[in-house]
Design brief:
Blueprint: E1 4-8, H1 13-24, E2 28-33, H2 47-56, E3 61-64, H3 70-79, E4 84-87, H4 94-99, H5 101-121, E5 126-132, H6 156-174, E6 180-186, E7 188-190, H7 209-217, E8 224-227, E9 239-240, E10 242-244, H8 245-258, E11 265-270, E12 276-277, H9 278-289, E13 295-298, E14 307-308, H10 313-319, H11 327-340
Helix pairs in contact: 1-2, 1-8, 3-5, 5-6, 7-9, 9-11
The structure holds UDP-4-deoxy-4-formamido-beta-L-arabinopyranose.
UDP-4-deoxy-4-formamido-beta-L-arabinopyranose binds near residues 94, 188, 240 and 301.
């Protein structure tokens, strides 16, 4: 019998790519999602999951549920005996978190506390948590390894990731005999499944660079605003460690294998170790799409840092995982998704 894994936020960008990798690795994912960032498809399931079902020829158990609905969560845990939980659900827009900090603390922290308490009540003790390099704040050194100080987050969203990490660390300490947790600190996930059927589909104006560039390439946006070209980087624009979302998803499968050895609480950076600037990413997407991508230099964005990229060696050593795909493949897969779905999941054409 395939081991069951609860996937919170499994209708979203990273969550849905992890659902694919879970199924392909022989696990049985059960998805809960409140649709806060997932587009509804036929049968009122996230369109991303509906497409995965068509792609893989299987059906995926899905429950529309908000983690703030504690009784609803209890029901799912009563119905299934989960081997592990992968926790993606939460609000993730940096700018919005600055405007609505209490909303972000309530949704992200209370939702996570509910999940941890219901896991404990039902004897589910294996957790993979979707954390973020944003917990490092403005890097004191580069590349960033897992020993780099954390907590210097510059926005409420990043602070929620840090606080949730701390909750999990303390829970593992309190129940050291039983609890295993792997905290995965993502750098900048981009790209899409090679089928072009699922991908990143931000609702409204994209906050992040690559979805915005892709929408310029496909003609949905006129030009890209480059937020500052006066940083101390190779061309003055911001440098980030972009990682293919499928590589990232495979890192989650590698994390599940750690639970067999009762790993306790572990933290890993999921990045490639290589940084690329905004203008380098514009060029890479022009090459992948064959389209010109217009841009204008604009003032720096509040809270942005100049450079951020990972030291990925610990994940390679202990998880036996490293990123396989380079920038060309990331941009090629992103372009296939965006050109087949110019308005994201809403156009519903690719099925
Ligand atoms: C990348 C670079 C911008 C948009 C954020 C979150 C982080 C994580 C990833 C969740 C920067 C520049 C961007 C644009 C631009 N999310 N840029 N024009 O800021 O590194 O990280 O997303 O975990 O928590 O903080 O990613 O894609 O927003 O920006 O010039 O329209 O692109 O200044 O240098 P970021 P990003």
């Amino acid at each position: 019998m395939a081991e069951k894994v609860l996937v919170t936020g499994g209708g979203g960008y990273v969550g849905s790519h992890c659902v694919v990798e879970l199924i392909e690795a022989g696990y049985c994912p059960v998805v809960v999602d409140n649709f806060s960032n997932a587009v509804r498809g036929e049968g009122d399931v996230p369109e991303s999951l509906r497409r995965i079902e068509n792609l893989l020829g299987i059906s995926i158990e899905f429950h529309e549920l908000d983690l703030l609905d504690r009784p609803g969560l209890e029901k799912i845990f009563k119905k299934h005996s989960f081997f592990a939980v992968m926790h993606f659900a939460g609000l993730k827009a940096v700018g919005e978190s600055v405007e609505k900090p209490l909303h972000y603390y309530r949704v992200n922290l209370t939702g996570s506390m509910n999940l941890l308490e219901v896991m404990q009540a039902h004897g589910v003790r294996n957790l993979v948590f979707s954390s973020s390099a944003t917990v490092y704040g403005d890097p004191q050194r580069l590349p960033i390894d897992e020993q780099h100080p954390v907590g210097g987050c510059t926005n409420p969203y990043g602070k929620t990731k840090y606080f949730i990490e701390e909750m999990i660390v303390d829970q593992c300490k309190a129940e050291k005999q039983d609890w295993n947790a792997v905290l995965l600190r993502y750098f900048n996930p981009i790209g899409a499944h090679s089928s072009g059927l699922i991908g990143e589909d931000p609702q409204g104006i994209p906050n992040n660079l690559l979805p915005y560039i892709a929408q310029v390439a496909v003609g949905r946006r006129k030009y890209l605003k480059v937020f500052g070209n006066d940083y101390n980087t190779l061309d003055g624009t911001g440098v980030r460690d972009y990682i293919h979302v499928v590589d990232l998803a495979k890192g989650h499968i590698a994390a599940l294998r750690m639970f067999k050895d009762n790993c306790g609480c572990k933290v890993y950076n999921l990045g490639t170790g290589t940084g690329y600037s905004v203008l380098q990413m514009v060029k890479a997407m022009e090459k992948a799409s064959g389209r010109e991508i217009s841009y204008q230099i604009a003032p720096r964005r509040e809270g942005d840092i100049a450079s951020c990229y990972a030291d990925p060696r610990l994940a390679e050593k202990e998880l036996g995982w490293k990123a396989d795909f380079g920038i060309e493949k990331m941009c090629e897969d992103l372009w296939r998704w965006q050109s087949k779905n110019p308005t994201g999941f809403n156009n519903g054409t690719a099925s």
